[in-house]
């Protein structure tokens, strides 16, 4: 890994377990929502996180920003172990790591104007600012995310879905973070405006040098937006590679199955897709340790009788 800049985010052996209660309310065992997950995100990089519903994507997103701290494992952000920070230091750190969620309407406060909602970021982080200075900063943020600053006094219901997500993005970038977790940020939007929001995220990345953890079901969008992609299966990473390598040469049966559900325009990949569909659904994805199968391309290799 020589020549690489140090990672912005280094996640090691992250696990999140939830207590499982029996249906009559007794104590049960634990449910391993995420188990032994490790990855880095480099400065200016977008890492895609894909996997079926319930595979643990949002759990990882909330764990790396400590919104829902992990059961075990370490998260180092800009070289600092987040578990070692006290509440005040963590709050300062939060200004550097933000989250954009799937449903902007749920994230917004219906009784707060869009301008006040964005300005709240400064207040929460106790940035001393005069009123006029704050209004100017919010107007600048509105312009930056493609919203007319004259709409600052409007309320959430007076915006379209895409505009609401732009408001959430404006608030997320207000404190000039270096990292944003985007958890299905376009899934609730009309297809016609999904690309606009993705392009906005890309423009902001270019301008601000942002890194993203981009959580998505949309494998085509992931390929378009992400530099590298991690495939999650039942709380474990089964494959992690550069996006081009993952889509052109998926190694893990689960990745192949996931990609087989997406039609692709390239003839060679289309052949691979059709071949992968032949993997029977009852075939359990193998669950060995991640092995480097090609430079920078990691996959959990088959083990045991399924190999
Ligand atoms: N607070 C909780 N208590 C118990 N189990 C939980 C809790 N939060 C999540 N889980 C479980 O952890 C697993 C992973 O959930 P998570 O929300 O991370 O999945 P996901 O990959 O984001 O799914 P989706 O694509 O549907 O958003 C699920 O089985 C879920 O039921
Ligand atoms: Mg989720």
Q: Could you characterize the architecture of this molecule?
A:
The chain has 307 residues and is α/β, with parallel strands linked by helices. It has helices at residues 57-64, 87-94, 104-107, 114-124, 131-144, 161-173, 191-208, 219-225, 243-248, 253-260, 267-276; strands spanning 9-21, 27-41, 46-50, 72-77, 80-81, 97-100, 179-183, 211-215, 228-233, 236-242, 290-294, 297-300. Strand 9 and strand 10 form a beta hairpin. The two termini are 30 Å apart. The model has no long low-confidence stretch (mean pLDDT 89). Residues 18, 31, 33, 51, 53-59 line the site of adenosine-5'-triphosphate. Adenosine-5'-triphosphate binds next to strand 2 and helix 1.
SSE topology:
Layout: E1 9-21, E2 27-41, E3 46-50, H1 57-64, E4 72-77, E5 80-81, H2 87-94, E6 97-100, H3 104-107, H4 114-124, H5 131-144, H6 161-173, E7 179-183, H7 191-208, E8 211-215, H8 219-225, E9 228-233, E10 236-242, H9 243-248, H10 253-260, H11 267-276, E11 290-294, E12 297-300
Parallel strand pairs: 3-8, 3-9, 6-7, 7-8
Antiparallel strand pairs: 1-2, 1-4, 4-5, 9-10, 10-12, 11-12
Bound molecules: adenosine-5'-triphosphate and magnesium ion.
Residues 57-58 line the site of magnesium ion (MG).
